Amino acid sequence: MRAVWYDRQGPANEVIVQGELPTPEPGTGEVRVRLEASGVNPSDTYRRRGAVPAEYPRVIPNSDGAGVVDKAGAMVPEHWVGKRVWLYNGQRNGRWMGTAAEFICLNADLVTELPAHVSFAEGATLGVPGMTAHGCVFAAAPLQGKIVLVTGGAGAVGHYAVQLAVWAGATVIATVSSEEKAARARAGGAAFFINYRTEDVAARVRDLTGGELVDHVVDVDLGGNLAAALASVRDGGSIAYYASNGALQPAVPLRTVMAKNLTVRGFVLPTSPHADRKRAQTDMARFIATPGRILSVDGTFPLYQTAAAHLSVEQGGKVGTVVVEPQK
């Protein structure tokens, strides 16, 4: 099969190479997927650059993908063969072969059927972005009638968080950095918008809620947003975060957290509890079953331009997920 890989960590255009590798065969409990789309997430670029120590001498990058099951291993029902699917945790948790290749074999537990009205490129956005958003949104109590603050509400994860919170019955306040991104958050169902570059987020939250504050915060950068998040959430509320690039080791005012009886939870998809991941797969399948959901693809690249796709993610400013198409 055609694939791209790296044998050492470093800059994308220096370490990513393309060539032929043996086509994998599914083991017990596994399916083989003929990949049509490979999602490139920031975490994939971090691993390639060396932010995470290499686990294997060779790595096919990227974790998320979508395609068609073309072969089933032992103990896997044959009805999987021929199904359109999306998948996650490709190059994760003991696997060196990711989705930047024509084929991947992985446990059938990690694949979910993809409806015909969702493109393969859109399906490749459902893993890290969609399931991370799910894990952070539903870290809270039932959201029906509640108010949720989503920071970075136009981002790949944040935009899914907006849509999922609205789907669950919440009123959403989203922070954005421009009118264009406000329009994107509005399209996802957010009721209110705060430009974090020009407005005091906590003050605006107090105004919008009549001083009641929000029940739950989904945060793209807890270290950078800590003061605003703590001032925006009501007593007994909760905060779930999936990144903290603004401050990797922030000074947390524990007395404030304690006095407000807050629940603060970090989330990372690959190592999250299996039951939570299965719930996310099930809920995401229900969510996308309705046509018209906004499943954002920022741009597509053929397989031989995987390095360029990684660079596109690293440059920032993307809207949605960058996708590599392994069959091109």
Q: What is the topology?
A:
Layout: E1 2-5, H1 12-15, E2 17-20, E3 30-40, H2 42-49, E4 64-72, E5 84-87, E6 103-107, E7 111-113, H3 120-123, H4 126-137, E8 147-150, H5 156-167, E9 171-176, H6 179-187, E10 192-195, H7 201-208, E11 214-219, H8 222-232, E12 233-241, H9 254-259, E13 263-266, H10 274-288, E14 297-302, H11 306-314, E15 321-325
Parallel strand pairs: 8-9, 8-11, 9-10, 11-12, 12-13, 14-15
Antiparallel strand pairs: 1-2, 3-4, 3-6, 3-15, 4-5, 5-7
Helix pairs in contact: 4-5, 4-10, 7-8
Describe this structure in words.
The protein is α/β, with parallel strands linked by helices. The chain is built from 11 helices and 15 strands. It folds into 2 domains: 155 residues, Alpha-Beta Complex (Quinone Oxidoreductase, Chain A, domain 1), CATH 3.90.180.10; 138 residues, Medium-chain alcohol dehydrogenases, catalytic domain (Quinone Oxidoreductase, Chain A, domain 1, Alpha-Beta Complex). 30% of the residues lie in helices and 26% in strands. The strands form 3 sheets. Strands 3, 4, 5, 6, 7, 14 and 15 form a 7-stranded mixed beta sheet that branches. The chain has a 6-stranded parallel beta sheet with strand order 10-9-8-11-12-13, with helices on both faces. Strands 1-2 form a two-stranded antiparallel sheet. Strand 11, helix 8 and strand 12 form a beta-alpha-beta unit. Helix 4 crosses helix 5 and helix 4 packs across helix 10. The chain is globular.
